[in-house]
Amino acid sequence: MTRCLDCGSERIADQCPTCGLTSAAAEVMFRRRLLKRTAVFLAGSIVFPYACNVYPPLDIDLMLVFFGVIFALALTLAVMLDRRARRRQEIEVLKRIYYGFIPLPWILAATLFVNGKLDSQKNVIYHPTVVESRYYMRGVVRGSRRLFVKGWRLDQRIERLAVDADDFDRFQVGDRVNVGVAPGALGVPWLYGVYRAPDDSMKSSRTQ
Ligand SMILES: [Zn+2]
Questions:
Q1: Second label for 175, Cα 20 to 30 Å away, from 101, 104, 142, 167?
Q2: Using an 8 Å Cβ cutoff, are 7 and 16 in contact?
Q3: How do the pLDDT tens digits run along the chain, 208 residues long?
Q4: What is the sign, positive or negative, of the torsion defined by CA atoms of 188, 189, 192, 194?
Q5: What's the gap in Å between 3 CA and the centre of ligand 1?
Q6: In 3-state terms, what secondary structure has residue 186?
Q7: Ligand 1: distance of its center to the CA of 5 in Å?
Q8: What is the 3-state secondary structure (H, E, C) of 132-165?
Q9: Which of 64, 156, 139 has its CA nearest to residue 105?
Q10: How far is the CA of 23 from the centre of ligand 1 (A)?
């Protein structure tokens, strides 16, 4: 007994009693759908890193790593599904797991966006700290820039701030800064802004 690749119904003959497709036709239909859903997933995976930069979460790098794991898992599933479908093997369980992955990047991106968008500026808390190092990794589109500052959270020796190009160029190692952190409408703290500490104003007017 096998199941129809397309609709998942049990079938005894080559033709599915529910959707009427032969096993060859069902394979074609299924793989076409797999491709479409994978495209939706890939598009979300391109959007997610951008969404991360709009209202950058404080733990952006942790989230990007977490997302990288999801991405790798999903693509592995897609490859396995395609291979199994070609061999006309059972795919029902894998298919359901994979389809669960498809909206994830979109949901994560929307969560981060809403988290920042609906947040109130009144709740921003400023943490005085010092820039310890800077890090720039070239990327295909815009690269990632980080200011590493002394941490203020428990068990967090360093905070890796995802800053834009302007802020990245503006601050040097040793600069004293105030880091504005918003709590997030959905409870994900995000980087509101990095500002030069007031007593450093002499230095900043010199460098500008
Ligand atoms: Zn069927």
A1: 142
A2: yes
A3: 689 999 999 988 999 999 999 999 999 999 999 999 999 999 999 999 888 999 999 999 999 999 999 999 999 999 999 999 999 999 999 999 999 999 999 999 999 999 999 998 889 999 999 999 999 988 766 678 999 999 999 888 999 999 999 999 999 999 999 999 999 999 999 999 999 998 755 554 444 4
A4: negative
A5: 8
A6: coil
A7: 7
A8: EEEEEECCCCCCEEEEEEECCCCCCCEEEEECCH
A9: 64
A10: 8
Q: In which residue are the tokens 């040097």 written?
A: 172
From the CA of 36, how far away is ligand 1's center (Å)?
19
Name the token pair of 187: 């409870």
Under DSSP, the state recorded for 141 is S
CA of 19 to the centre of ligand 1 (A): 4
Q: Which of 99, 94, 92 is nearest to 11 (CA)?
A: 92
